[in-house]
């Protein structure tokens, strides 16, 4: 029997009562025996250690493995070394080290692949974030309107939008932001027919100011109220009799010598420069000048009635004479007609701009949003209106879904067309229009996260509507409010998306490239060494 367990007698006989310290394979070969007798006839002579029995087979196996050796060794004494071979070996080692480091760096680098696919996200809405400064459009009139091909038409959108007053001369933002006045509409006084007849019968002493009279008129009185208007403007027509009635009422007041009222016809050639220099964008514009200074003023925003005007003068004049100029320093008056904090806003002669910051919720269909002048109680002077603007940022998508790492990797803001760029208005009554082609952008991170955002390309054009051709040369012509200069951002969503996928080189590919590079260099340098060596030997034999 073979492979049997060693009998107790056989074990004791083989070991001779001596304890041996064996381990590993030696312990296995010393404790396993091959027995050639039946179990009942076992003796020490009938059992042999496994190592003794398997020795011939091990010799055969080792000889077979030696025959398979592809990299046979040559004794050093039988080889020949040269200086040129040593130089080639140094170059070979340096090149191997360089390529190894380069491939390792490439293996550790994250690469991206870009592809284009049909956009099947199924999203119906998106956001557009913007930070736009209208350099010559006051916040009082700045309006954001949204429309699209599905019939959406939103005017004067204020939700999620913050407005800041901007100095038109210096281009920097003022300290406070613009806050909408309460939703109460401006009250327009309607005079009775007999009141109109009585005003027509009275000799009007209300001065009409032109370019030469304006500055002396302002500097000759402590408090001056001036109404800028146009004959074609319906709001100016409604204000004309009320303004005259207020002037007649003020003449009987004890403080009449401190107050003067006047009007300016901005369509008149003699006063056109005054309206332009004072940035009169809308009609009627009522301004208050104090302390005989024309470089600073306040816009009156209260009700347009004689009672409201007189109440405003009574609130302002005593405090003005006491040296209080800025309306913000005054306590809130008890009268409901108007107050210095809500009925008037302080401005400078340099004009006012407006910075609009926020976001709009729009549908993913072609549409546009525009920034223009809008008012329910004014008509606009389109010839002096300026919609030059500076786009600091304009982005599409949901910014909270785009991590900071994606912004650093893709640099979405700087790769967008409208990033910290200004657009100037070069002609009157022009519209500045931007055409934005928006492309969905999906980024697949290495860890499996998918970020969805948008990128776009913009084109720009400045043009005048054809309807304005009829108004050329007609300074007193009424221009349709739809033709008011504005800044338009027309967007169109692409049906395809750009997919960027992060990926790295696999470890198997890295090992393959390392072996190929090192092995290839070793082989090529070896061939080159053999060619040089044997070529030199052959040349030496011919010369020798």
Automatic annotation (TrEMBL):
GO terms for cellular component: COPII-coated ER to Golgi transport vesicle; endoplasmic reticulum; membrane. Keywords: Membrane, Transmembrane, Transmembrane helix. Residues 195-318 form the Thioredoxin domain. It is found in: Membrane. The keyword Nucleus does not apply. InterPro entries: Erv, Erv_C, Erv_N, Thioredoxin-like_sf, Thioredoxin_domain. Pfam families: COPIIcoated_ERV (PF07970), ERGIC_N (PF13850), Thioredoxin (PF00085). Its main location: membrane. Transmembrane segments: none annotated. This is Thioredoxin domain-containing protein. It comes from Chrysotila carterae.
């Amino acid at each position: 029997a073979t492979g049997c367990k060693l009998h107790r007698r056989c074990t004791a006989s083989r070991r001779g009562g001596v304890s041996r310290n064996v381990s590993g394979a030696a312990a296995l070969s010393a404790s396993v025996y091959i027995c050639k007798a039946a179990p009942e006839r076992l003796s020490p002579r009938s059992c042999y250690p496994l190592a003794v029995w398997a020795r011939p087979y091990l010799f055969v196996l080792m000889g077979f493995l030696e025959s398979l050796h592809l990299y046979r060794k040559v004794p050093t004494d039988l080889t020949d070394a040269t200086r040129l071979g040593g130089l080639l070996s140094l170059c070979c080692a340096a090149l191997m080290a360089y390529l190894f480091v380069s491939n390792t760096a490439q293996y550790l680098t994250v690469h991206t692949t870009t592809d284009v696919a049909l956009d099947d996200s199924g999203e119906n809405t998106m956001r557009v974030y913007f930070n736009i400064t209208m350099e010559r459009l006051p916040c009082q009139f700045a309006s954001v309107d949204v429309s699209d091909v599905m019939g959406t038409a939103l005017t004067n959108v204020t939700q999620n939008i913050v407005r800041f007053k901007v100095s038109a001369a210096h281009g920097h933002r003022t300290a406070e932001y613009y806050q909408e006045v309460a939703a109460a509409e401006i009250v327009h006084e309607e005079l009775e027919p007999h009141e109109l007849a009585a005003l027509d019968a009275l000799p009007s002493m209300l001065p009409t100011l032109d370019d030469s009279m304006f500055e002396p008129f302002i500097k000759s009185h402590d408090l001056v109220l001036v109404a800028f208007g146009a004959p074609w403007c319906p709001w100016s027509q409604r204000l004309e009799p009320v303004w005259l009635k207020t002037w007649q009422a003020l003449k009987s007041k004890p403080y009449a010598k401190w107050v003067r009222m006047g009007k300016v016809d901005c369509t008149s050639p003699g006063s056109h420069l005054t309206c332009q220099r004072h940035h009169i964008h809308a009609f009627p514009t009522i301004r208050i000048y104090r302390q005989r200074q024309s470089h600073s003023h306040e816009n009156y925003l209260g009700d347009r009635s004689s009672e409201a005007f007189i109440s405003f003068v009574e609130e302002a004049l005593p405090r003005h004479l006491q040296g209080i100029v800025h309306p913000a320093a005054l306590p809130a008056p008890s009268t409901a007609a108007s107050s210095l904090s809500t009925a008037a806003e302080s401005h400078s002669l340099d004009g006012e701009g407006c910075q609009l910051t926020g976001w709009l919720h729009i549908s993913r269909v072609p549409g546009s949003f525009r920034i223009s002048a809008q008012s329910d109680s004014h008509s606009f002077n389109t010839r002096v209106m300026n919609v030059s603007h500076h786009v600091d940022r304009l982005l599409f998508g949901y910014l909270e879904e785009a991590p900071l790492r994606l912004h650093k990797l893709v640099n979405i803001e700087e790769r967008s067309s409208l990033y910290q760029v200004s657009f100037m208005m070069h002609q009157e009554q022009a519209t500045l229009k931007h055409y934005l082609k928006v492309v969905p952008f999906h980024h697949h991170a290495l860890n499996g996260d998918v970020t969805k955002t948008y990128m776009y390309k913009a084109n720009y054009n400045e043009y005048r509507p054809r309807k304005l051709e009829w108004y050329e040369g007609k300074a007193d012509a009424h221009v349709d409010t739809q033709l008011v200069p504005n800044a338009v951002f027309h967007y169109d969503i692409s049906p395809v998306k750009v997919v960027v996928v992060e990926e790295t080189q696999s470890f198997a590919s890295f090992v393959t490239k390392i072996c190929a590079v090192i092995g290839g260099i070793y082989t090529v340098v070896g061939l080159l060494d053999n060619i040089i060596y044997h070529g030199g030997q052959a040349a030496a034999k011919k010369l020798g």
